[in-house]
Amino acid sequence: MATSRRDRADSYTKRAHKEGYPARSVYKLEEIQKTTRIIKPGDNVLDIGAAPGSWTLYTHRELLKGKGRIIAVDLNPLNLDPVPLTVTAFVGDAFSKDIRSLLVENGPYDAIISDVAPMTMGNRAVDTARSEYLTEQVVFLAKEHLKEHGNLVVKIFQGGGEVAIIKEMRTFFTKVKPFKPKACRDDSFEIYLIGLDKKRT
Ligand SMILES: C[S@@+](CC[C@H](N)C(=O)[O-])C[C@H]1O[C@@H](n2cnc3c(N)ncnc32)[C@H](O)[C@@H]1O
């Protein structure tokens, strides 16, 4: 019998719990990293929309292998105990003046990863518009503060706005591709935009 995305999502939740991750979203980053190597040991990584902390913890454990560091930012604190030594966490709006200047101070970055998402209202037009705004902000930050050859992965709710964002990303990445991990739920309209090998600016 075929396995639905919903069944797989539930098995991801159980696996996350067993492996000590606070959210099953970790398996989306795992799949992205396996398909396309975004992060390597020693990298300076920025994780935007990091809470509760699965992507941050996975990056620390599996990708940096003790070398490099992660700047993690979210409106909410990370739910990691302990917070790994490679992680510096900021709580607040990543795009506010104060937090943005802290992010800039800690850059430039080899990789920016962002699973950022708005609080959803259940109204697709409103939810996608808010997601597009957040994604755009991450892409602007990557344009300015990602190193040459750096990589970006950022979530967006598909509503049509992703077309213009992909077009913008193509101006400064060698390769850009949309990607939908198997770990996404069937009814989710999220996808990830991956930008590889930032061009010299
Ligand atoms: C899907 S969750 C991220 C899950 C995370 N990747 C993990 O694996 O644990 C999306 C996050 O984006 C955060 N977020 C939304 N808007 C934000 C903003 N302006 N600045 C910082 N974080 C934001 C939310 O607070 C939420 O924690």
Brief write-up:
A 7-stranded mixed beta sheet has the order 3-2-1-4-5-7-6, sandwiched between helices. It has one domain: Vaccinia Virus protein VP39 (Rossmann fold, 3-Layer(aba) Sandwich).
Features:
201 residues; Rossmann fold; alpha/beta; 25% strand; 7-stranded mixed beta sheet; 7 strands
Q: Roughly what fraction of the amino acids lie in strands?
A: 15-25%
The CATH homology group name: Vaccinia Virus protein VP39
What distance lies between the first and last C-alpha atoms, to the nearest angstrom?
51 Å
CATH class: Alpha Beta
Mean pLDDT metric: 94
Helix content: 25-40%
E-strand count = 7
Coarse structural class: alpha/beta
CATH topology: Rossmann fold
Sheet having the most strands: 7 strands, mixed
Q: Order of strands across the widest beta sheet?
A: 3-2-1-4-5-7-6
Computed CA radius of gyration, to the nearest angstrom: 16 Å
SSE ordering: HHEHEEHEHEHEE
CA-based shape: globular
Bound molecules: S-adenosylmethionine
What is the CATH architecture assignment? 3-Layer(aba) Sandwich
Low-confidence stretches: none
Oligomer: single chain
Number of domains: 1
| Count of helix runs | 6
What does the model show?
With 201 residues, the protein is of the alpha/beta class. It has one domain (5-198): Vaccinia Virus protein VP39 (Rossmann fold, 3-Layer(aba) Sandwich), CATH 3.40.50. 38% of the residues lie in helices and 25% in strands. The protein has helices at 5-19, 26-35, 54-64, 97-105, 124-145, 162-170, and strands at 44-48, 69-74, 87-91, 109-114, 146-157, 173-179, 190-198. Strands 3-2-1-4-5-7-6 form a seven-stranded mixed beta sheet, sandwiched between helices. Strand 4 (109-114), helix 5 (124-145) and strand 5 form a beta-alpha-beta unit. The longest helix has 22 residues, at 124-145. It is globular and about 45 Å long. The termini are far apart. The mean pLDDT is 94. The chain binds S-adenosylmethionine. The site of S-adenosylmethionine (SAM) has 23 residues, from helix 3 and strand 2. S-adenosylmethionine (SAM) binds next to helix 3 and strand 2.
